[in-house]
Amino acid sequence: MASQSHSHSLSYAGCNFLRQRLVLATLSGRAVKIRKIRAKDDNPGLRDFEANFIRLIDKITNGSRIEINQTGTTLYYQPGLLYGGSLEHDCSPNRSIGYYLESLLCLAPFMKHSLRIVLRGVTNDQVDPSVDILKATALPLLKRFGIDGEELELKIIRRGMPPKGGGEVVFVCPVKKAVKPVQFTDPGKIKRIRGVAYSVRVSPQIANRIVDSARSILNKFLPDIYIYTDHMKGTSSGKSPGFGLSLVAETTNGAFLSAELASNPQGDGVAVLPEDLGTNCAKLLLEEIYRGGCVDSTNQSLVLLLMTLGQQDVSKVLLGTLSPYTIEFLRHLRSYFQVMFKIETKPSNEERKGGEKILMTCVGIGFSNLSKTVK
């Protein structure tokens, strides 16, 4: 790592995009300093879930230096080596496990030892991508880049709904020396829709009501729809009641587009009718299909990161409209890895092809896993 130690550290202000900055710092080996984290707030400094995230980064790396000032408004992070191994982590119940998992998906393939981690906390909430969605969309994406094998899996052992959580998932990912470049520019047509309607600590009938209402909309478009109902009982149902639906549309060329909704947490806001939740989620899926592209909006930053880290060859991916989070991620990729993407808008000339698409092209930096050189 000595070659990278001379590269100057990056400095940012504000609490936004904390995960992006720490993940890219870890991969590029560059130190990062973040100042003015909620400095003007009544309750200044890092939030509980952010401190928890920093602890997780500390667990999966070896020799990281993390300094936080008294008020928690300044953070200095000097990354160590990605170590991996077999770990356990209790996530903060304020955010779902998806918040932590999104970053682990970026880092896991580049560890020294293959990662096997048990995460406990909230599996489905209204803010972050749920574990179901990441399992259905992010794992096939990793496989496209050659990160596959028997080990790659994400298993939900217990479900946990907010506010108390109590869920548990196991994420296992093999290590790879390098990432394949990818040409993925034609998503094809939607061929099937799969989904999971889950309910915990409420009547099992609710899941069926969600399925019926979601199907009533989706059946107008295609016949191949199968929504599983997942009613967990006893200890595997976590500590709080709730229900929700996650839907994934698969295209003929193996692109996955997803949408999801969860009920309001217990004692928070008005109760949601299962029927409304089902129809709204189906409409969200149709909206995501309209946006289109080969990767849905939750995984845009993951696919761009893997393209950047690929071998020194051209990667192309067709995306739907870029989310603000992704746009900021592109800026971060430029400052950490000096990678610029060629961005071309493709207006949809054909009818029934949805909104305008964006073709992202870049040349990988040839990132190789430092720990895997001796094999």
- Report the average pLDDT across residues: 93
Kindly estimate the percentage of residues that lie in beta strands according to DSSP. 25-35%
Number of strands: 18
Q: What is the structural class?
A: alpha+beta
Helix content: 25-40%
CA-atom Rg in angstroms: 21 Å
Q: Globular, elongated, flat, extended or rod-shaped: what is the shape?
A: globular
Extract low-pLDDT stretches: 1-6
Please tally the helical runs, counting DSSP H or I stretches of 4 or more residues.
9
Q: Output the strand order for the largest sheet.
A: 1-2-5-4
Measured distance between first and last alpha carbons: 19 Å
Q: Give a short account of the largest sheet.
A: 4 strands, mixed
Element order: H for helix, E for strand? HEHEHEEEEEHEHEEEEHEEEHHEHEE
Task: Walk me through the structure.
This protein is α+β, with helices and mostly antiparallel strands and 375 residues long. It is built from nine helices and 18 strands. A hairpin with a 4-residue loop joins strand 14 and strand 15. It is globular and about 55 Å long. The N terminus is likely disordered.
